[in-house]
Amino acid sequence: MIILGIDPGYAIVGYGVLEYRNNHFTVIDYGAILTDAKTPFNERLEIIYDRLCSIIDTHKPDAMSVEKVFYNSNAKTVIDVSQARGVIMLAAQKKRVPVFEYTPLQVKQSVVGYGRAEKNQIQEMTKRILALEKVPKPDDTADALAMAICHGHSSGSLSAFGNMRIRKGI
Predict the structure, then answer these.
(1) Residue 62: Cβ within 10 Å count
(2) Among the options 19, 62, 67, 143, which is catalytic?
(3) Is residue 124 helix, strand or coil?
(4) What is the pLDDT of residue 72?
(5) CA angle 45, 48, 53 (to 5 degrees)
(6) Which listed residue (7, 19, 62, 143) is catalytic?
(7) DSSP summary character for residue 126
(8) What are the average pLDDT values for consecutive 10-residue runs of the chain, which has 170 residues?
(9) pTM of whole model > 0.90?
(10) For a Cys staple, 123 with which of 70, 75, 135, 149, CB 3.0–4.6 Å?
(11) What are the helix (H) ranges across the chain?
(12) 89-96, long-range: CB within 8 Å, 24+ apart, which pairs?
């Protein structure tokens, strides 16, 4: 199974593409979609959509794992992130990639085994699970890889997906 993990944002969208087979992860690709603060917001959304569609076309994921947006203290930020998340969800829908949503608590529990884990603990465990030399930067990229790990751990078996597209040979 190929999993595309996404850490949504509008300045930085982290992504990580992992293969999950026989309870083992293999890193395929990771990085970040960056948009410039001086670019009009609608154009930033278009950049996110276009680049994410390109990533989907390149890697043909079987599932997309996306962090649920939670409200902290800045309403404008959560609204803008929600809009970016909307174009991320639209890209997945248009490309027929099933989307699975996880809360930060679920990601922490899945990757670290503790729901109140600190960001650096999640990043260190992500590095270890994926046998990376260092924690990927920017942080959004490491968070996206953690999202993909969370989905792999949560998916159980491929039979749990019902009518999900299954790659030949898996």
Answers:
(1) 22
(2) 67
(3) helix
(4) 64
(5) 125
(6) 7
(7) H
(8) 96 97 96 97 98 98 90 75 95 98 93 89 95 95 97 68 41
(9) no
(10) 135
(11) 41-59, 75-94, 104-111, 119-129, 139-155
(12) 90/49, 91/49, 91/52, 91/53, 91/56, 92/56, 92/64, 92/66, 94/53, 95/53, 95/56, 95/57, 96/165
**Locus of tokens 């076309």:** 57
- Known catalytic membership, residue 43: no
Spatial separation of the C-alpha atoms in residues 164 and 8, rounded to whole Å: 23
Task: List CB contacts of 130: < 8 A, sequence separation 6 or more.
Answer: 18, 25, 27, 145, 149
Counted residue by residue, the chain has a size of 170
Question: Checking DSSP bridges between strand 12-21 and strand 2-7, what pairing results, if any?
Answer: antiparallel
| pLDDT the model gives residue 70 | 67
What SS3 class is residue 63? strand
Q: Is 101 a catalytic residue?
A: no
Rounded Cα–Cα distance for residues 69 and 3 (Å)? 20
